[in-house]
UniProtKB/TrEMBL annotation:
Topology in membrane: Single-pass type II membrane protein
Organism in which the protein naturally occurs: Cardamine amara subsp. amara
Keyword Iron: no
Full protein name: Glycosyltransferase BC10
Keyword Transferase among record annotations: yes
Length: 344
């Protein structure tokens, strides 16, 4: 028979465990749901892709002939979870430059985007997985796009990440010429910020000190999700393992959890801060933002004045791209494409 002390101890233990489960169950459920989007099998498949891309770059470097230097290309990486509404505008943007670009699309499996889409840009749909806000799945998707583009064409030397809501603000020639105007190592254009007022909450979104020891608070950075990376930095991203182990952890504070806006700025700030511009080439209007989403331009707002104003920046370069635009703005954008957008 149990003694009274044993019974009291057992009852206390049961109550403690029950209370602990009650307090932590939301976090447990959240952790489970987040990790279900990033299974071990998916992670291993990604690692295999990243390894093949890194090895291919080494092999291609050995085979380069100095007597024949191919023209450098820009890889446009489309990250989408809905229809590519602005495809006609992008087709006009790419027209006549078939040897200078490649297009890769990561379409969320739950979206309506079809790999059989009829497009003159010859886009390549890469194997995609479900993505979700406040989770590391967007980091995975972007790394997957980078690796696929590196593996597909060794002449991809710049990698521009855009969304289904992005539009170009200049002609293709303008953008290509500015990116490859220097003969030295290309710079990456990515926003890297260290003085934002919300930085502490974002750093602790996974729990106090959860990022240690790999990522100290003073090394943590934030920035825009959209970037233009030079190839050496794209390779750095797909080879990286240590920081990813932290950023793949689930967040408990969803309101402060935007891993894709943290991982890339933090990594590149740690590895090569002088090789990055610290500003983005994609213009976003956060005035009147709702639910973490920026202002969406509608058809009535499209005008030559809007395009010219969106181009202007505080850096030495104009903005190359802009978001966010609603599908109904396509027609007025097409109406000013040749006369305004593609006339630099």
């Amino acid at each position: 028979m149990f003694s009274s002390s044993t019974l009291v101890y057992s009852l206390s233990l049961f109550i403690s465990i029950s209370l602990l489960f009650f307090l932590l169950s939301p976090h447990i459920l959240l952790s489970s749901s987040r990790h279900n989007l990033l299974s071990t099998a998916d992670d291993l498949e990604d690692l295999s892709l990243f390894h093949r891309a890194a090895v291919s770059t080494t092999n291609n470097r050995r085979l380069i002939s100095l007597s024949l230097i191919p023209p450098p290309k820009i890889a446009f990486l489309f990250l989408t979870n809905s229809d590519l509404s602005f495809l006609p505008l992008w087709e006009s943007f790419f027209q006549g430059h078939e040897d200078l670009y490649n297009v890769y699309i990561h379409a969320d499996p739950t979206s309506t985007v079809s790999p059989l889409i009829d497009s003159s840009i010859n886009a390549k749909f890469i194997p995609a997985r479900k993505t979700a806000r406040a989770s590391p799945t967007l980091i995975s998707a972007e790394r997957r796009l980078l690796a696929s583009a590196i593996l597909d064409d060794p002449n991809n030397l710049y990698f521009a990440l855009v969304s289904q809501h992005c539009i170009p603000l200049h002609s293709f020639s303008y953008i290509h010429n500015h990116l490859f105007s220097s003969s030295s190592d290309q710079q990456s254009f990515i926003e890297i910020l260290s003085d934002e007022p919300f930085l502490p909450k974002r750093y602790n979104a996974r729990g106090d000190n959860a990022m240690l020891p790999e990522i100290r608070y003073e090394d943590f950075r934030v920035g825009s999700q959209f970037f233009v990376l030079a190839k050496r930095h794209a390779l750095m991203v797909i080879k990286e393992r240590k920081l990813w182990r932290k950023f793949r952890l689930p967040c408990f504070d969803n309101e402060s959890c935007y891993p894709e806006e943290h991982y890339f700025p933090t990594l590149l700030s740690l590895e090569d801060p002088k090789g990055c511009s610290h500003f983005t080439l994609t213009r976003v209007n956060w005035t009147g933002s709702v639910g973490g989403h920026p202002h969406t331009y509608g058809a009535s707002e499209v005008s030559p004045h809007l395009i010219h104003s969106l181009r202007r920046s505080n850096s030495s370069l104009d903005y190359f791209f802009a978001r966010k635009f609603s599908p109904d703005s396509l027609q007025p954008l097409m109406g000013i494409a040749d006369a305004v957008i593609f006339r630099d």
